[in-house]
Amino acid sequence: MKTAILGAGVSGMALARTMIERGFDASDVHLFEAGPVVGGLCRSKTVDGYTYDVTGGHILFSKDAGVMQWMKDCAGGDDAFVKRDRNTKIRFGDRWVHYPFENGIGDLPDDVNFECLRGYVDAWHRRKMDGSEAPADFKSWIHWRFGEGIARHFMDPYNEKIWKRPLEDITSGWVAGRVPDAPIDDVLRASIGIRTEGYVHQAIFYYPKKGGFQAITDGIGGTLTDRVRLNTPVESVVRHGEGWRVNGEDFDRVVNTIPMNELPGIVDGIPGDVADCMRGLAFNNITCFLLALDRAEHPNLSWVYFPHHEQGPANRITYMSNYSPGNAPEGKTSFLCEVTSPGGRPFAGKELEDDVVDGMVYAGLVSRDEILFTDRTDTKYAYIVYDHHLDERRRVSIEWCEQNGIHPLGRFGHYDYFNSDQCVIASRALAEKLLEHARTG
Ligand SMILES: Cc1cc2nc3c(=O)[nH]c(=O)nc-3n(C[C@H](O)[C@H](O)[C@H](O)COP(=O)(O)OP(=O)(O)OC[C@H]3O[C@@H](n4cnc5c(N)ncnc54)[C@H](O)[C@@H]3O)c2cc1C
User: Fold this and answer.
1) pLDDT tens profile 205-244
2) 289 shares its domain with 349
3) Are residues 154 and 295 in the same domain?
4) Residue 224, domain CATH
5) Backbone angles phi, psi at 212, to 5 degrees
6) Is 221 in the pocket of ligand 1 (CB under 6 A)?
7) Is ligand 1 within 6 A of the CB of residue 55?
């Protein structure tokens, strides 16, 4: 069964490795990769000794200990990683507020603390009294769940910054497990200054000592060098008998990890209504700025959220040199600033960098004379946007692929809001399915 895997990010490579490790003939596995290196969204870049993850700071963590160990082993084992306690904050004026916000309201000015607590209790009480169901749109859900104060001071402005559209246009369906959900007792404690943790998921994470997060995907790709065709964009996928012809070469089956939005321009014979669904799947881009600093030490922080307009366009910064000292030259430090933009629109020009730096200066994180240089990477397809059409468009798109022998996989290949470990888990499940299929014909 000659198999074409479109894309050599973590999903495509984990699939190839699993298939080969489970006895599939390696010479029948072919990965097509448009880029000059493997890794996709997990890639990192090093400039003058400063390393950053090009699509936002990445950390390794997983609820599946076996998968996490496999990812570490691919990249040199435990000794090749640093272990970190997550220390995440929200910047609020000149204060550092514990994350999640509702567990940190005791760090706010008294009047804001009171407003947030009051709103949280009101919302809690209203839900108890009217037994209302969670509202379907994200904006209403925020106010229903967190109350007016937290909505006004954090949830609304932060989410508007990252999603770049009215929050009414986004569903609330994706929030379970992604937006922390504090019990009321924790918020009461937080308000009077008793520390509550709130979000223990990712409390500890791992990061490669050298090479950025990409060290992991480099490691996964290490045994696949003769299976991956780099600099080889897939330009045509045409039906041929029972299989498909990819860039003019015959394959028995195809696995797709490249964004589904791109398939109508590549795959022959997609009906118009299905193609419209694929093209209409909503996403956001990301622009990342490395700020290489002439500074010896940072506060002991992992990353920081910036909810407010005056703090500039970046919604999050990562202390890259705190992830691993290997991310900066000795005696130096660095930040990574992330800015999203609506998918499908052109990336902003040079002025964006000025706005980001102005915002960081305003927020008191950096002074201009510390910045040795900056580096910028724009990436299309960073965040899946859960607009009200997503479920239906995704269902139609996946159904058509599966019915036509194209197996969808990965963050944008299957449109799942996956981290890299979840991509590995999904790839393993698909490998089992394909092996079973190969056995039974
Ligand atoms: C801001 C942000 C933060 C994140 N943080 C974390 C984190 O902390 N921890 C974590 O584990 N995960 C994190 N993730 C998620 C992680 O990056 C993804 O889950 C993972 O990289 C997706 O891998 P993939 O292989 O499915 O897709 P991709 O990485 O997108 O791989 C698809 C591949 O297809 C290639 N391709 C595209 N078009 C073509 C074509 N026409 N022909 C051939 N090849 C093509 C691309 O070059 C790419 O290599 C984060 C993601 C973002 C955006």
Assistant:
1) 999 999 999 999 999 999 999 999 999 999 999 999 999 9
2) yes
3) no
4) 3.50.50.60
5) 70, -175
6) no
7) yes
